[in-house]
Amino acid sequence: MVRAFRVYDTLAGEVRPFVPRVAPRIGLFVCGVTPYAEAHIGHGRTAITFDVVARALRRWGYRVLYVQNVTNLDDRLIVRGLAEGRDPLELAEFHFQGWLRAMDQLEARSVNVYPFATDYLPEIIEQISALLGRGFAYAVDGDVYYSVAKFPDYGRLSGQRVEALRPGARIEVDPKKRAPEDFALWKTAKPGEPAWPSPWGPGRPGWHIEDTAITARLLGNQYDLHGGGTDLKFPHHEAEIAQAEGASGQKPLVNYWMHAGMLQMHGEKMAKSVGNVIGLDETIRRVGAEVLRFYYLNAHYRSPLNYEEGKSLEEAREGLATLAAPYRRLREEILRGGLTRPGRELPPEVARTATALPHRLDGILAEDFQTREAIAALYGWGRTLGEWGSKLETLSGAALVTLGAPYRWATEVLGLFPERTSGKAPPEFASLVQVALEARSRARARGDFGEADHIRQALLKAGIVLEDHSTETRWQWKRDGSG
Ligand SMILES: [Zn+2]
User: Fold this and answer.
1) How confident is the model at residue 167, as a pLDDT?
2) pTM for the whole thing?
């Protein structure tokens, strides 16, 4: 049996019960990155939002096929590639590898498939041909455009009227288009640009068509759930609906649309084009992946999240430390052999609360993924656990396991308090690294972050990579020192 849940569906404009097309399967597609430069922390927010959605659905018994596309060719990649003297496809591969490393550090490993746009050229050409055949598109001199006037539902998702979407008089409209709101499905290649053969001449796909060609192939003409940042509602997701429903004649394309709120800085969306970006890698290095993950999740996913330099992540660090401290104490007790030790059992009401809490937390997430409320409930449990303090050593192994259950739920669903993984260094290394880590944590405790960073850098030179988590600092030894 799967757990029932409800989700805010953008198209319906309300929270409604989720009914999979073919239970227990759920097809999930989320718009992924265009890896033309290092990702910023705004990208990370959307990724972590849907990582928790996928984790929760799997815990509740659903079989989730989670597809996140990679736009490995677009105008920005071509411009960047030219500026850096690099092949744009190779540039995309390079930055995508960086994205994967960041996702790994952030404990976000729930995606099943990362399809690259350029691996789906046959599907893209097939879908454009279908749109031409059904009268939704027109070809002009090697370009193909979607004729928005042919699709009356265009604008429904974002709640906008087509007339309002027309660019102002100052913006130059492509003279090949029949109407300014029409968008490109296929673009003829300029000299020197990557190009693929097509019935309309050599060229490359427009941005929107890759998503629907990929999902038609991997998830079918209709599927369950589409996610992305709220900035993609228009025109990207409107275009997806128009393309897929126009080409297949089947509607709706998806049964539920989920949109994650924007990460903002000074009231504006964080974006390269605005120039207010904070790098994802640099933030992970500075505060640790777990603090960043906690920062994202300690807010409702649909609300804008306002980033304040020198404040937001520092508050997250403190909040996570408070939440983690009693659990760290519990883990230490377990590491000291607490699991096999005889001892007292818990008072029945405490045991009942601990056992019931994971189900209560599931219930909170089952109402539109309220991660902030779940974290608030965990804080309550942390206070109870904290009261056991030194009395933990009098408890039986079973009692310790019971007390940890709500935190293990958080590890499984929220991806916090990850389990330890060991470094691959020889054993004599470990004790030396431990000494350095202790010195570093003393430096951090007294607020000497310069010294702490100095120790990190020194270890890095020896090939030892640190990763800060709430309950411990993990480290890995990279023999070649490549990090
Ligand atoms: Zn997309």
Assistant:
1) 59
2) 0.88
